[in-house]
Specification:
The chain is α/β, with parallel strands linked by helices. Helix content is 20%, strand content 24%. The protein is built from five helices and 15 strands. β13 and β14 form a beta hairpin. The longest helix has 25 residues. The two termini are 29 Å apart.
Length: 267
């Protein structure tokens, strides 16, 4: 895997940004270039967003794009470049919205999530920012279970959990976390890596980190798929809670790469 992470204002590469495939970590060199041998089971290349830069979003759907758009092809060289835009000023104060368990099983529930939950967030945040001058620099994180064992809903839920556009012209990027009901339950799914395949294709990496202000956020998958139970519409995955040794190793490397550790909070 190889690529360049550049500053949009200068056109130059940004040094020292951690880049990973979920297994290996490296950092961009003085020219903003990274390169490493991707793991056989790696799917995406992604970086840890620095606090000094805006969350890069896809102009079409508002989704945070801190990861490669396509799966890694381990048989060839994969190049993925990223461009970051500096913040106008430091975000020492910011707002995090926690969106707990949308857990939509059918299309009508996804519509309710859009028409009720998202609209409530829009009105609450716009009022707070415009009238009360509160809750600025806002970001959101889902707390898992975006779906309820229904892979058909992934494209729709991925779209709804991309960003929230407010009436004042601002938007709230959404970072996502996988839950047990977001693992694919199927007799064809043989292991945990296969159980998260559709999530990664539609939403992005399961284990990743980003920085806002003086806080380092780590998002991880603590569901270990062990099989599938039930039949037809009642089919669900069976699982243990915990982390693999590979994930623990990844986390240790992620924390080691955190800059200014003495002044950082970790969530």
């Amino acid at each position: 895997a190889i690529g360049l992470i550049a500053d949009s204002s200068t056109g130059k590469g940004i040094a020292g940004i951690p880049v990973t495939d979920g297994y290996t970590f490296t950092t961009t060199d003085a020219n903003g270039v990274y390169q490493f041998n991707a793991n056989r089971w790696a799917r995406r290349v992604y970086f840890t967003l620095p606090s000094e830069y805006k969350v890069p979003v896809d102009p079409e759907n508002g989704r945070p794009i801190f990861y490669s758009a396509k799966d890694i092809n381990y048989k060839q060289q994969n190049r993925n470049d990223f461009t970051l835009t500096p913040l106008d000023k430091p975000e020492d104060e910011f707002t995090i919205l926690a969106i707990g368990d949308p857990q939509c099983e059918v299309a009508s529930e996804a519509d309710r999530f859009r028409n009720e939950t998202i609209n409530d967030i829009k009105s609450t945040m716009a009022f707070a920012q415009n009238t009360m001058d509160k809750y600025h620099n806002a970001y959101a994180i889902t707390m898992g279970d975006i779906t309820f064992d229904n892979t058909v809903l992934w494209p729709k839920m991925a779209e709804l959990c991309s960003s929230i556009n407010l009436s004042n012209g601002k938007s709230i990027p959404i970072f996502n976390c996988i839950g047990n009901h977001d693992h694919e339950a199927s007799l064809d799914v043989q292991n945990d890596a296969e159980a998260v395949e559709l999530y990664i294709q539609n939403v992005g990496p399961t284990d990743y980190s980003f920085n806002r202000g003086k806080v380092h956020f780590v998002v991880m998958d603590n569901i270990v798929y062990t099989g599938t139970s039930g039949f037809g519409d009642s089919m669900t995955c069976t699982y243990d809670a915990g982390y693999s040794s590979q994930q623990v190793d990844w986390l240790a490397k992620d924390l080691e790469a955190v800059a200014d550790k003495e002044n950082k909070m970790v969530i």
